[in-house]
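Colleagues,

Please find the record for the two-part complex below.
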Amino acid sequence: MTQLSEEAEVTAALLIIGNEILSGRTKDANLPFLAEKLNGIGVRLREARVVPDIEAEIIDAVNALRARYTYVFTTGGIGPTHDDITSECVAKAFGVALERNPEAVGRLQAHYQTTEINEARLRMANIPAGGILIDNPVSKAPGFQIGNVFVMAGVPMIMQGMLESLLPRLRGGAPMLARTVSCDLAEGTLAEGLGATQGRYPEIEIGSYPYLRNKKYGVSLVLRGTEEARLDEATQAVARLVRDLGGEPSITIGYA
Amino acid sequence: MTQLSEEAEVTAALLIIGNEILSGRTKDANLPFLAEKLNGIGVRLREARVVPDIEAEIIDAVNALRARYTYVFTTGGIGPTHDDITSECVAKAFGVALERNPEAVGRLQAHYQTTEINEARLRMANIPAGGILIDNPVSKAPGFQIGNVFVMAGVPMIMQGMLESLLPRLRGGAPMLARTVSCDLAEGTLAEGLGATQGRYPEIEIGSYPYLRNKKYGVSLVLRGTEEARLDEATQAVARLVRDLGGEPSITIGYA
């Protein structure tokens, strides 16, 4: 376990909404994308949850997470069909009305031909009272922010566009930097020395991830921290440990 | 939203443990695998959470989930390194001691050469008191079951081996069956009729998932349920709806 300084840490949680994730039908691709963007602006993704399209589950999760983290991001459930219930659940979580937002209606009207506008599509303009729209550069129907909760689409390309457009609203901290030391030693061989190294660098998070690639076992030792000099010092210490144990360390800036 | 009959439903949650998922470094592959296996034996995956390698977070999540679902599966954090703290956290969640398990020690001794056995590797034989081992056909260090919680490795190949070996212990229900109706209509065109169809088949869960493939938009309408005749009837109703709206439905058994 790593003890990081918690002072002034800006944190976030992701709430993934949708039966299709829990059925195994759809593999979530939004968590890694969000995580990387948040690393870059110094916001730490601290938890993720996946819940089904059930009102009480969504409301409970939104309220649990928004009380606990600086920011909450949700993905999924803001389309025009009957199983898209995220917006009304978020309104209920905040105890506000769900209102037809004129600006959102305008964006839909500009995008669709008059004959295509129907009640189902207009549902996508229903936004909790007080919500601030999030631009959707792909298919126009906006997401929204209410309080510290950012509601986005589930389709990765749309989610990515929405996230890019809302990033400037976020207050971040020092970006999280990463280094990876890879080698073909076994985790069990490295464990004692690695634990000692972690003890000497408490502000650096050191993780050990074994892998099997091209039928060869190896381990990626990932170091993360916000102070580059200290991170590089710890990385060199880990590389030395690998060499001392007869391995050949390969260092990558970032993840590997 | 879909109202499914909750009577005698066997439910499960997945707890994914590890900083590497929340940093975006590692993409989880265990959720879809678990979901598919559980669908097959009639256990419904109802929630997933991802938590970091922090003791209090793991303990809280284990206790919240085990109180709520028939089964809880955890992945990650049972290796030999300092960041592997799942077993001690699960012991604390259950309020029992973490003990060196003789059977687990025996399996490690049979697997490793005498010179390779060290304290770090023996940590992998520390199992909460009362835990029942889960076989690891890949790298021998076992997982374990305590109460309704099943603790597995995070490396997908090992997790998959462990899951196969524990499946016979689970009590399931009627397998969840799926059908997919794909077409190139827009969701907003389908929404009204789809909602009406969902209303007529309340025991079938109907989800609508738009996609962009080869630069063409389309939508997959996924139907899930446990009664095959009724599922096929609902599938035909959805296919008819697509045809009535000028689309060409393509039906797949399972997900598409």
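Residues 1-6 of chain A have pLDDT under 50 and may be disordered.

Comments are welcome before we finalize the supplementary table.
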